[in-house]
Amino acid sequence: MKVVLTENIKALGGVGEVVEVAKGYARNFLIPQGKALEATPGNLAMMDQTKAKRIQSLDRELEGARALAASLEGMSVTIAQRVAEAERLYGSVTAAMIAEALEVKGFEVDKKQLELEEPIKKLGTYEIPVRLAPEVKAQITVEVVPEGV
Asked: What are the boundaries of each domain within the chain?
């Protein structure tokens, strides 16, 4: 049975693709779950319109991400933390803390967009990449200083 996918399915394909699947799989899983529609001429036309709208919205999001990346590039954030001996922190600086510091400066960045490999556990200056879109990245500087200084 031919179906049009309404969302990305790893084993089958992406949104708008027409794929051949077993009738039972289509009728018992894909169609009831809203993951696919039967490949009728009407559904194919509807998916083409949806695809065009989606491309336009993705273009707008990409432009917004580029503008945010341009303003974020080179941004510096200072975070004060309590320090133990040998410049080690009590606790650590996490992506959520960095996102909160950016929000105070007026930038809406989700903590998931910060590519922090592991929490920061020492004083110092760190370069953190921010992925705003799949192909849009910006670099910010995070400076971790002792609290009360």
From this structure: 2-64, 69-146
Residue range 126-135, pLDDT digits in tens? 999 999 888 8
Whole-number average pLDDT of the chain: 91
End-to-end CA distance of the chain: 69
The predicted pLDDT at position 149 comes to: 60
- Angstrom distance (rounded) from CA 18 to CA 36: 9
Fold of 69-146: Ribosomal Protein L9; domain 2 (3.10.430)
Classified as helix, coil or strand, 131 is strand
What stretches of 5-142 show up as alpha helix (H) in DSSP? 23-25, 41-72, 95-104
Burial 37-69 (b: 16+ CB within 10 A, else e): bebeeebeeebeeeeeeeeeeeeeeeeebeebb
Residue 86's pLDDT band, with cuts at 50, 70 and 90, is: confident
CATH class of the region 2-64: alpha beta
Q: Single out the residue of 26, 48, 45 nearest to residue 37, CA to CA.
A: 26
